[in-house]
Amino acid sequence: MLDTTIGQSRIAGTEELIRPYIRRTPVVEINGADFGLDSVRLILKLELLQHTGSFKPRGAFTNLLTREVPDAGVVAASGGNHGAAVAFAANKLGKPATIFVPSIASPAKMDRIRSYGATLMVVGDRYVESLAASERCAAESGALQVHAYDQVETLLGQGTIGLEFEQQYSELDTLLVAVGGGGLIGGIAAWYAGRVKLIGVEPEAAPTLEYALRAGHPVDAPAGGIAADSLAPKRVGDLMFPLAQAYVNRVALVSDAAIHQAQQRLWDVLRLATEPGGAAAIGALLSRAYEPEPGERVGVLICGANTKAVDFGVLAA
Fold it and tell me: pLDDT tens digits for 188-206?
């Protein structure tokens, strides 16, 4: 059932609460021809410039500012970005944090988590195993569990991106958003509530929302591909699913090759270094998994930058 408490008024209140702790990330309009899309207006929301290199601090701060944090602090499971965000928020608010990640988490994301003073635990090969370990830790320690996507506060925080994007560019026809567990697209769906065409973008190797929409409820899906550390949680969250059913027009599936091409094109055209999950939505345009109409105003959320793919070389002695 659709949770009507995850709506515009609460998202607006959440944005006001977390505003001192997050960046208002920029929007840039570019020529669609740069991405092989003549007569299309592309408007990119550069959420990869958020603190910690992804959109995740919005949900992390919402959790820590609206829920009671015990002396034991917070615990979270993550493919990397959510963990970095929780570690960052906990550090800023003076709370201890323990973060569980799977072995597939990128070194860049693990380094981020450590840099914010959190205790890092590498458990299992996939997110679902790290999640189970984090739940055991929370039960034993009394720490507050901060879920990466299936938590009302997380959805409200991520929904502030929709509010911010609409303030910056109010004439979107379509918005493309990458999908992992669904906290991001769920929050954005709650904000727009059908006022734009919302397209979820998933890797072919991790079609969590696609499987759920076909089944009529969240189900297990494959959890692989080059974006597995951010877009492959095995299944979407229960809280986001009714929002997706109500407001997501469809899912576009993209190959690993298309995601890699999107990373390269974003670097070539805009000098944006993105992780695979952060570039996936552009991959849907390059591969024509989503093909805009002439003149369509297409928003794309560029949501993550935690990669070490850019080599700046070594300064000579």
Answer: 999 999 999 999 999 999 9
pLDDT at 119 over 80: yes
* Residue 249 confidence (pLDDT): 97
Distance CA 295, CA 173 (A): 10
CATH number for region 8-55+155-302? 3.40.50.1100
Q: What is the pTM of this model?
A: 0.94
Whether domain 57-145 has CATH 3.40.228.10: the reply is no
DSSP string, the chain: ---TTSSHHHHHHHHHHHGGGS----EEEEEGGGGT-TT-EEEEEEGGGSGGGBSTHHHHHHHHHHSPPPTT-EEEE-SSHHHHHHHHHHHHHT--EEEEE-TTS-HHHHHHHHHTTPEEEE-SSSHHHHHHHHHHHHHHH-PEE--SSSSHHHHHHHHHHHHHHHHH----SEEEEE-SSSHHHHHHHHHHTTSSEEEEEEETT--HHHHHHHHTS-------STTHHHH--SS--TTHHHHHHHHEEEEEEE-HHHHHHHHHHHHHHH-----HHHHHHHHHHHTTSS-PPTT-EEEEEE-B-------------
What tens digit of pLDDT does each residue of 121-154 get? 999 988 889 999 999 999 999 999 999 999 999 9
- State how far the Cα of 315 lies from the Cα of 302, in Å rounded to an integer: 30
Domain boundary assignment for the chain: 8-55+155-302, 57-145
